[in-house]
Structures are given as structure tokens and as C-alpha cells.
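Reopening this one. Same input as before:
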Amino acid sequence: MVRTRLTAQERHAQLVEAAVTAFAQGGYAGTTTDQVARIAGVSQPYVIRIFGSKQELFLATMRYAGDRVQEKWRAAAQQDPTLGGLGRAFKDLLGERDLLVVLLHGYAAAADPAIGDTVRQCYGDLFTLVRELTGASAEQARDFFAGGMLVTVLGAMRVLGPDPVPPQPWMTDLLGVLPYAEG
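Same output, byte for byte:
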């Protein structure tokens, strides 16, 4: 069997993808670098050698998640540079449930001063990008983000997205008022 060596960039990406899975399951406080290493199929000391600490790995994971949303929105804006176009693109991310859950864990961990600056920067960059891509006012972008946060929470709870839980009456009522939530 011939093994090909991954480049440093490929290994970094592999570890961040494993971290998305691990941090989605346990959050920042409940996840260890050993869990990330096991998912990635590497040793725990290797994870530390690449990232230096669990905190730096989590921050890299948050930056990756924010970049993934930005990538999705930039591509969508090529076809439809409206809030609706970006909303439909975000809906596609419901299939990447771990990514959305990691974002929620990041927002929850933002009270930690070492994490908060990166998480706030990520969120601020997303807000600014929406305004740049769509020409939305601050109020329109705020409303878009409020709806998007609700979609994120509902996706994390499996109310929306692939393999949803059986609907309950409150879900039907709530989804009836959400743009881009149908389907």
C-alpha cells in the first residue's frame, strides 16, 4: 500500500474538519484535543504541535466556519445579490449541521476573553459582508441576521434541514413566518 503524505495545508484542513465534528458534539469546554486527534486519525501531540493549544484549534475552527458561510454567500451573490439570495444559500448550509452547531458553541463561548474577540470579528465580518453584497441597510441586515440566527438554532435542533424531527404544532406556526425555511 502506497501512502501519500499530506501537505501541511491539507493536514491543517483535515484537523479543522475533525475539530468541527468534535466541537459540535461537545462544545469548547467539553471537547479535548485527544477527541479531535482520534477523529482525524492522528496523535494528540500532533494536534498540539500544529495548533499549540485547544484554544487555538477552536479559534481556527470558528474562523473556518465563518469563512464557509462567507464562501457560500459570495457564491450566491454572483447569481442573486439580495438578502433572499443569501438566505437561500444559508439554508443550504443546514446540510452541514455540525458547522452551524460549532457557530452556536462559539457564540456561547464568546464570554471567554481569549475567544470572544475572534468570534465577534467573525460575526462582524459576516454582517459587513451581507451589507456589502446586498446593499442592505443596517436595519435590514439586522433583521436578516435575526432570522438567520433562528434558522441556525432550528437547524441545530433538527427542526430544519436533512432528517428533521417529526413536526410539532409550534414548529409549523414558527416556520410559517420564516423566509427561506420552507422545503
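So the earlier flakiness isn't reproducible anymore. For the record, Residues 8-175 form a domain with the Tetracycline Repressor; domain 2 fold (CATH 1.10.357.10).
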